[in-house]
Amino acid sequence: MNAQIHTEGIVIAIDGPSGSGKSSTSRGVATAKALRYLDTGAMYRALTWWMLQRGIDVSDPTAVAGAATTPTITMGTDPAAPTVHVDGTDVAQAIRSQEVTANVSAVASVPAVRERLVALQREMITEAREHTSGIVVEGRDITTVVAPDAQVKLFLTASQEARAHRRSAEVHSEDVAGTQEALALRDRLDSSRALSPLTQTAEATELDSTGLTLEEVIALVAGLAEEARAAA
Ligand SMILES: Nc1ncnc2c1ncn2[C@@H]1O[C@H](COP(=O)(O)OP(=O)(O)O)[C@@H](O)[C@H]1O
Ligand SMILES: Nc1ccn([C@H]2C[C@H](O)[C@@H](COP(=O)(O)OP(=O)(O)O)O2)c(=O)n1
What we know:
Layout: E1 10-15, H1 22-32, E2 36-39, H2 40-53, H3 61-67, E3 73-76, E4 83-86, E5 89-90, H4 98-108, H5 111-131, E6 134-139, H6 142-146, E7 152-157, H7 160-170, H8 176-192, E8 205-208, H9 214-231
Parallel strand pairs: 1-6, 1-7, 2-6, 7-8
Antiparallel strand pairs: 3-4, 4-5
The structure holds adenosine-5'-diphosphate (ADP) and deoxycytidine diphosphate.
Subcellular location: Cytoplasm
EC number: 2.7.4.25
Catalytic activity: dCMP + ATP = dCDP + ADP; CMP + ATP = CDP + ADP
């Protein structure tokens, strides 16, 4: 009888501020290395979208906590076509609205929300570890809280100017200064909340993408993934 050889999938954790390139880098690496892809920010956005739809006052932590576990959130982890559904509704477009973007940090600061979504994220990571070649997970607390045992841990950065230019180009806005201000505000909120704030630690490798193309960043991270796989 042949003994079954089981290789555990690798986990690549990427944190960083808004517009640093987490989503595009993660998708690119996952595609290049045949890994799954999880955008945890999309999960916080999905819950925020649902609360806004329901008329829940998202500035009231008690109201947010009371509704945190109600809707079903389902994430598709194919990097070629990631999906996000709330109670069966495809919200991929809706969660990118300005209204959701402006309110997501408040929702993400509520402990009951984080407790629920972190548990869901860990379940998905375990599933990918056990049944696939691995997963790239990106967000704000992945290297520190969600998957501190990941084989590759990165803190992706870029200058405020570069991030504002990238985001403005993405949404076809000419108001780069306004975009930069909005990014800075969200970064401040995400970095100063009490629970699991965006934090750069010594355990995560810093990768400054300011002067690099997306392709260069993807190649660097794919190289780290290759090394981690070889060492596994
Ligand atoms: N190294 C890079 N150079 C230039 N543009 C980039 C780079 N990385 C990402 N981008 C672009 O910047 C925008 C924001 O990137 P995104 O991956 O959404 O960042 P984040 O997930 O960190 O908010 C996207 O339009 C993306 O294509
Ligand atoms: N792991 C995570 C991921 C996102 N969040 C919160 C904080 C972020 O401002 C929002 C939205 O995240 P998202 O990654 O979509 O943000 P950007 O792509 O940078 O605009 O969610 C979080 O608190 N923890």
